[in-house]
Amino acid sequence: MEGKGQGVNWDWAFQCCCNVSCQWNVWLPRDISAMTNSCVVIPCTFMYPSGIRPHRGIHGIWYFGQPYPQLFPPVVFKSRTDVVHESYKGRTKLLGDLHQRNCTLLINNIGSEHSGRYYFRADLGGANMYTYPDFAELKVLEQPNIDVPEEIVSDESLELTCYAPDNCPDMTPEIQWMYTDYLPDPEFSTDYLEESNSAVLSNTLTFTPRPMHNGQLLGCRVYYPNTTLVYERLISLDIKYAPRSVWVNASSEVMEGSSVMLHCEVDSNPPSRISWMFGDQELQWDTASNISLFLDDMTPAHEGIYTCVGDNGYGLMNTSLYLAVKYPPREPLVNSSLTVLEGTTLALHCSTQGSPAPTLTWLKDGELVGTITADELSVLEIADITPQGDGQYRCLAENEHGRASSSLNITVEYAPVLLEESKCTVVREGVQCVCMATGNPEPTIEFYLPDLNITINETDGRYNFYTHTDGHTSTGMIKLREKGERVDNGGPAVNVHCSIYNTYGRESVLLELQQEKKYMMAVIVGTIGGVAVIAFIIAAVRYVGHNNKKENGNPRQDLVLENPALYYSAVKKDKQNLRKKVLKTELLGSKFNSILEETTGEDGDYQPVGSMAGLERQELNYAALEFIGARSREGATGRGDDGGNYTEIKAK
Q1: CB-based contacts of 543: which residues, under 8 Å, 6+ apart?
Q2: pLDDT digit string, tens, across residues 43-66
């Protein structure tokens, strides 16, 4: 606060004169002020002991700074001579009459260097000289004083007073307030204070400040009419007010694992204690006008309401925002894998979490089987499940940030069912019977020959029994070479039963006999084609050999084979290829290759059946080959005219 600084304390130097005498005393204002470049009058009255009779009149001296002449203080005024300090030449004048004990001093055109203490010394002649210890302290002002309260609170009436000294008789000041246009309903009042011949002019401004006025400038101007002297002082209003606004980021969405910065600014004076709150937890605080909260590696646990609170003792305010954490769906939770009986009703549950809420889709073996649900829980109901319901069920959770899935297996158990691919087929070696069935658990397959009262299963090594399991499908196969009786169409009669069973049931059926026309055609075409190829090779060899005989002109020349074994092996390989046939049977997506070879040794349990037993084996017994490009061996002798160009190879 800037005080008026204009109160004047007068030390009365009067002392009662008793029977002896009065003492040395002086009366003058303790504090007095003036504007720079103006003037000031220091009122002064002095007394001396009544017993002293001045010789040659009364003289007076004004000192500046200190009262001790022996220290040679600057002389402000001296009545005996005009010898004064250089800074006071032409500036000082004694207005009082020393003989009337009036020592009033006038100082013109004062400057800041003239601020200080002024002492008066009375010279009554001879040894009667005395410097009064009391002083008047002059303050030279370059600006007017403004009285500002220690605390200015918003919405409370405020008074500001501007002071200007009026201690120069020839110059009367005037006061004006500046920059008051923005104030709400300002009021002005002027007052004049005078104490002990020291005068002060004041002007008081009254208004009700608002928070918006904080930091605004106000000014007081003092000027002397008819002069160029103008003095101004500016102040900045420090308006105390409670938080009136709390600004934070807008509510936002961030990705899981990312970072985010939350800002908070509070408009208050003085600055507030700002706190970031998450629920009841204080995350960070500081006394400032703003604060920032840094959140790293965001997780779904960070999602929620964040509140910024500002409190400065004059009031409290808060503002909140919502921070949403987006993340891809978590791995769904589904039922455990199940094994159920055909006809059972199931409810499959799938739950997950994600932001935004994921869509849930049920898939079976890659195909959509359930409705798409935009929720964190989906239930797939399967009523009266059939074997076709067996498989892998996958719950797929998706949102714009990713996908996740979980699977379970549903195993449906049911009684065995015979497949239409089950039959007996005539093949080159006899009859091949295939029995196929599906079921869960996988069915066991047995063959029954009622004519022979024989049951053939995997424990029986006869009839080339073969079994194979693919998933829930079982396949059994046997080969028969037994000759059955002819039926009306001339084919063999086959009486083979297939028996299938598992935990939930058993079934036995008679297998139908079918002719394998395609296979027979393949055998015929293959045989004819093979014979044609060999015939072509023999003709080519004969033709080339005949030409060589003509060119050489010596049919008896002995020849040396380049590599007889090579030619022989090629012919043998062609023969073997003709003797190997491949029967491919494709049953329910699985391929069974049955390689049927004619054997040169024993055929095991195979027996001729029907017309197949009448097929004769055809073999290539002789081949006549002419070796072209044979070279004569040096020193070789002839072996006769009938064997020079051909070699007979016999293969059985």
Answers
A1: none
A2: 999 999 988 888 788 999 999 999
